[in-house]
Every structure is written in C-alpha cells, then in structure tokens.
Design brief:
269 residues, alpha/beta, Rossmann fold, seven-stranded parallel sheet, 7 helices, 7 strands, globular, binds beta-D-glucopyranose
Length: 269
C-alpha cells in the first residue's frame, strides 16, 4: 500500500456504512482522503458515530438514510451526494443482510428481502453511479478512471450454503451482475470489482464467533487460522478504488484467510 492519501479529492458512497464491513471500509476510504457519504438503513446513531470519527480525524462525511432496495430513495441519495460534494467517484455496494431459514421453511418475504437489499440494491446504486460517471467522464488529476464500483460479495459467491439459500443466491447473482456491468462499462473507463470476504468479525455473524467454542469451530474453516477484521476489507477496498489497481476490472478478489481453499480436503479426499 502506497501513500495514505491515495484517494484525496475523491467522493465515495458506502452503503450500509453504519456497522461491520461497511463501517470499516468507510473509515479506510476517509483515511485515504475521500469524502464519504455514510449510508444507513435504520441506525442513525451508529451512522452519526461513523461521521464523528471521520470528522475528528480531519475528514469529511455525512450520514444519509436510504433503503437501497427502494428505487426512489436511491435516486434521492445520489441527488444528495452530488448536491453536497459535486459528484461521485467511488461506489461501495456494501449493504447486505441475512434472513436465514431451512429451505423448506423459507418464506417469500425472507427470500425477497435478501434479494432486494443484497442484489437489487447493488443494481439500483450502480445504475445511478454509472450515469454520473458517464456524464462526467475522467477528471485529470483525480483518477485514471471515470469511476469505480466495488461490489461486496462473499465467499458464498462460490461456496454453497445450506440454510442460507437466499443469501448465497444473492451473492452468486452479484458475481454475474458485477462481471456483466464491468464488461458494459469498461469502454467508459469505469472499473467494477467484487470483494469476497470470508468470515469477518461483525454483527452479521456474531453467533459464529461470540463464544470460544463457536470461534474454534469457525476456525476449522479458515486455514490461516484467524477471523478477519473490517479493517482488512477496508484496506483492500481502498487499494481497489485507487489508481494502483487501475488495470483491475470484472473480478472478485476473495479475502478470506483461505476459506475458499476447501480446507476439508487438507486431510481427506
Ligand atoms: C456471511 C457470514 C459468514 C461468512 C463465512 C459471510 O458472507 O455474511 O455470516 O460468517 O460469509 O461463511
């Protein structure tokens, strides 16, 4: 990683930035010099706290509530960031949730909510970002790209997950969504990249790490033998959004301590 101000003069929007991976990414982008819109769905106090941390460190940020699965709300959010900071350079499609259930018990509501936020949300936000990137084009001295879209996926983009079929389907969907828009937007100098986190210590998977027993069981799935931290993903997102990664588009980078290495095969098969 090069200079700490590699995103100076750029504007970023991070969805679901009030907690977990989104918060870690927002703090990392701000530290790298970006102005950041902290999007949240419900927890205004948590979003305000992220803004406060950024401002106290000398950065710029503001919080904005939007349910990313709602078209009009997404349009309003993009109007707001453009009105406040003039444009947008980086979109981090991070907002995501789990509504776990056994397949035969899964309700349509659980299915629709997860697909709505995790997948449709990425569609709605990416479409608005791409429109602005294309309209504005490359600005010399800011970035070599006209814009960067980072799609938060998961190891469950490739690892099937019983009991979480809606979630895994949303992440598998993100993979082809990301690649297809990367292909379509590359001629406009827009880069689209996926990040596939493994187990990162956040509220979404609290049950998997909150007791030593649960954590030990989880570590069986992680050859590198530690749980990830939001800051791990924050550093990767910052680098991917920077010009150091200017030739990367249309791929998911897994950051998972080896979870996608099928550790069960280390002594079996
Ligand atoms: C899920 C977590 C899970 C991790 C590894 C993530 O995408 O949100 O709940 O711990 O994948 O299975």
């Amino acid at each position: 990683m090069a200079s700490t101000k590699q995103l100076e003069g750029q504007v970023a929007l991070v969805t679901g930035a009030d907690s977990g991976i989104g918060k870690g990414v927002a703090l990392a982008l701000a530290q790298a010099g970006a102005k950041v819109l902290i999007n949240y769905a419900h927890n205004q106090a948590a979003a305000d706290e992220v803004v406060k941390i950024i401002k106290e460190a000398g950065g710029e940020a503001f919080a904005h509530q939007t349910d990313v699965s709602q078209e009009e709300q997404v349009e309003t959010m993009f109007a707001k960031i453009i009105q406040t900071y003039g444009t947008i350079d980086i979109l981090i499609n991070n907002a995501g949730l789990q509504k776990d259930a056994k397949f035969v018990d899964m309700t349509l509501d659980q299915w629709n909510t997860v697909i709505g936020v995790n997948l449709t949300g990425q569609f709605l936000c990416s479409r608005e970002a791409a429109k602005e990137f294309i309209k504005r084009g490359v600005v010399e001295g800011v970035s070599r790209a006209a814009g960067k879209i980072i799609c938060m996926s998961s190891v469950h983009e490739v690892i099937p997950w019983a009991g979480h079929v809606n979630y895994a389907a949303s992440k598998g969907g993100i993979s082809m969504f990301m690649k297809s828009i990367a292909q379509e937007l590359a001629p406009h100098k827009i880069r689209v990249v996926g990040i596939g986190p493994g187990a990162i210590q956040t509220p979404i998977n609290k049950e998997a790490w909150e007791t030593p027993q649960a954590l030990n069981k989880l570590l069986e799935l992680i050859p590198y033998n530690r749980i990830g931290q939001p800051d791990d993903i924050g550093k990767l997102a910052t680098w991917l959004a920077s010009d150091e990664a200017d030739y990367i588009t249309g791929v998911t980078i897994f950051m998972d301590g080896g979870m996608t290495l099928y550790p069960g095969f280390a002594d079996n098969g």
